[in-house]
């Protein structure tokens, strides 16, 4: 909100002007009793609609209100049905003139405020999208994050449901993640993750998608890879990942568990959330 007020220096003036116009309209129209209060209500409603839905919505309400109140005034002054003490023909025209001036000024002010606020919200959304794009990539492994995985799995499911094909989603869980971090420290953990990412990139194709699902779990979306071909991928991962060289040159053996499942046009349709959740709950894991 501070950026909103700083970037649009006239917003405060517009808000003050709007409040003054609303207050002035009430003071000037209140003596006209019933018709005056109806005019004030019409102005307030038009302003609220403009602030929430823009000039088009507020303008429509304003025109309808002006038409209805104008017809009401004409009917009362011509038939003598009006009982308000100031509601003569002359004062009816005065009331309607005040109403129209107040309506135009307040709706115009509200429209300006709404436009500025809309631009501010669009800028905020654009900034948030840029931030999301930046944080979508893990800085250590350069793998995408869980949110990006959800989006891309959903996209692949839609593609397969429409055009056929298949993909396999594979989870790779690093056992004893906490123990390794406690034993060797953050620097060695960063080195391990970077080495893991490098080795995974050596094994998987550039067309496959790699994700850091959480601190100790990784996910790989293997495009157009049926379940029967995944065993070869697991063997290659085992060769590359089981043995790790620490920064001091010492070699350690790592333990991973893998779960995977295939999605194709022959399985029951599922959403990305359902498919991922089902795979996470798999009871059969492949140790490596």
UniProtKB/TrEMBL annotation:
Positions of transmembrane segments: 12-29, 35-53, 60-78, 90-113
PANTHER family: CYCLIC DI-GMP PHOSPHODIESTERASE PDED-RELATED, CYCLIC DI-GMP PHOSPHODIESTERASE PDEF
One Pfam assignment: GGDEF
InterPro entries cross-referenced by the UniProt entry: Cyclic-di-GMP_PDE-like (IPR050706), GGDEF_dom (IPR000160), Nucleotide_cyclase (IPR029787), Rev_trsase/Diguanyl_cyclase (IPR043128)
The organism's taxonomic lineage, starting at the top: Bacteria, Bacillati, Bacillota, Bacilli, Bacillales
Protein's UniProt name: GGDEF domain-containing protein
Domain of life: Bacteria
Species this chain originates from: Caryophanon tenue
GO molecular function: cyclic-guanylate-specific phosphodiesterase activity
SUPFAM superfamilies xref list: Nucleotide cyclase (SSF55073)
């Amino acid at each position: 909100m501070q950026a909103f007020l700083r970037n649009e220096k006239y917003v405060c003036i517009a808000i003050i002007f709007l409040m003054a116009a609303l207050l002035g309209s009430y003071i000037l129209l209140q003596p006209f009793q019933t018709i005056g209060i109806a005019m004030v209500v019409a102005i307030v409603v038009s302003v609220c609609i403009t602030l929430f839905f823009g000039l088009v919505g507020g303008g429509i309400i304003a025109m309808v209100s002006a038409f209805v109140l104008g017809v009401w005034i004409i009917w009362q002054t011509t038939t003598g049905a009006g009982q308000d003490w100031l509601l003569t023909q002359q004062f009816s025209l005065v009331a309607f003139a005040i109403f129209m001036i107040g309506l135009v000024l307040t709706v115009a002010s509200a429209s300006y405020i709404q436009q500025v606020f809309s631009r501010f919200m669009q800028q905020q959304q654009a900034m948030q999208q840029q931030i999301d794009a930046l944080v979508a990539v893990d800085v250590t492994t350069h793998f995408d994050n869980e949110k990006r995985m959800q989006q891309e799995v959903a996209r692949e499911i839609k593609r397969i449901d429409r055009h056929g094909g298949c993909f396999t989603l594979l989870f790779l869980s690093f056992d004893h993640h906490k123990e390794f971090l406690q034993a060797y420290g953050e620097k060695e953990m960063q080195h391990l993750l970077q080495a893991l990412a490098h080795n995974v990139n050596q094994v998987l194709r550039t067309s496959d998608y790699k994700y850091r699902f959480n601190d100790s779990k990784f996910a790989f979306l293997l495009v157009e890879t049926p379940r029967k071909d995944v065993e070869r991928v697991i063997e290659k991962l085992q060769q590359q990942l089981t043995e790790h060289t620490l920064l001091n040159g010492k070699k350690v053996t790592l333990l991973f568990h893998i779960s995977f499942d295939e999605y194709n046009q022959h399985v029951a349709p599922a959403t990305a959330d359902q498919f991922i959740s089902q795979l996470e709950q798999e009871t059969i894991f492949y140790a490596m």
